[in-house]
Amino acid sequence: MSAVLAEAPAALLKRPQTFDEIQGRERFTAPLDHAAHALREVLTDYHFPKEVPCGLKSCRQPHKHGYLVLTEDGAETNIGQQCGKTHFGEEVFSLARSDYTRRREREELVARAQQLQVTAADIGRSITDLIQRPYGAKWAMRVTQELESVIGAGLVDSLRVSTLTDELAVLTTRRRSDDEIENIMAANRGLSRERATYEDQVIGRLLPATWLGFDFRQRLVVDLQGPLGSFRTMTVLDMPSPRLKAEVKRFDGYEKTLESAAEAAASALRFLNAENLAMVALWIPSHVKGASAALREWVDGKEYRSLLQGAPK
Q: What was the pLDDT predicted at 3?
């Protein structure tokens, strides 16, 4: 069997939705004798809900997923993946399929990039709105700064870690009664009286500080807003596929990024609930002198009330 011809490839076809579209093509031939027709290229892939027969005379095996191919003399037929390798030769078919896959991926990549360019202005407005709006990203970053100024950056980072590890229980230490101590020591031989005397009790649970683990500046400004301007004016047809793929990947998931950012900012507002902050004051370790008192004082002050208004400042 001859190799795939080094001619200019035919234009890619829109993926057919029905087998009738394939059978209705002017040059479609089935059954086709593969021995008399060398493979030239793959025109398109197809995926049907019901099986269709292979177009090769020596096969005719039903399949749902296959390819419409062009032979070197201009005839077209449909084949399954395995029968393409078997009847046209694995090397010949693999080369044709790889070339088609590369061209199809490039076509879809360019189309997606151009689609994103058309909507780039809307994307930019959505990003700016999320950053600047009341209770938005800029406001959430202000919440972080305010908390760090009140209880310290170390405790704020501990809140971030506790959220990530889901260790949000607030504990207090209770001294057991003498009878309880004796019973525990009797049931646990070798346990010291000191260890038997006290127990930790859960008195509440903090709301997750999700926004502390979301890098608003990196995710929204550096990754999206900054590169968006240059992306809008790029000539995508001239860009090599690896770079174009990276640009498309950057903006293709922007909606999910904005959703994550919005939810992160919303978690900051929930966290500022006065009852939750009272629990935070109890969560702060006793050795961090003055932090609990500072937090309680802050909640009673004008800075806290101002923050609840949602202004990014």
A: 42
Contacts of 54 (CB under 8 A, 6+ apart): 60, 61, 62, 63, 66, 78, 79, 80, 83
What's the pLDDT score for residue 291?
Answer: 96
Considering the entire predicted model, what is its pTM?
0.74
**What is the rounded distance in angstroms from the CA atom of residue 77 to the CA atom of residue 164?**
56
Exposure string over 18-51, b if 16+ CB within 10 A, otherwise e? eeeebeeeeebbbebebeebbbbbbbbbbeeeee
User: Would you list the domain boundaries of the chain?
Assistant: 19-88, 115-168+206-308
pLDDT tens figures, 6-63: 455 566 788 999 999 999 999 998 898 888 888 899 999 999 999 999 998 888 888 8
Taking Cα atoms as reference points, which of 142, 274, 291 lies closest to residue 211? 142
CA dihedral 85, 88, 90, 96 (to 10 degrees): -100
Share of the chain above pLDDT 90, in %: 64
Q: Which of 146, 278, 289, 257 is nearest to 212 (CA)?
A: 146
Q: Are strands 169-175 and 62-71 parallel, antiparallel or unpaired?
A: unpaired
3-class SS letters over 96-141? HHHHHHHHHHHHHHHHHHHHHHHCHHHHHHHHHHHHHCCCCHHHHH
Distance CA 140, CA 270 (A): 11
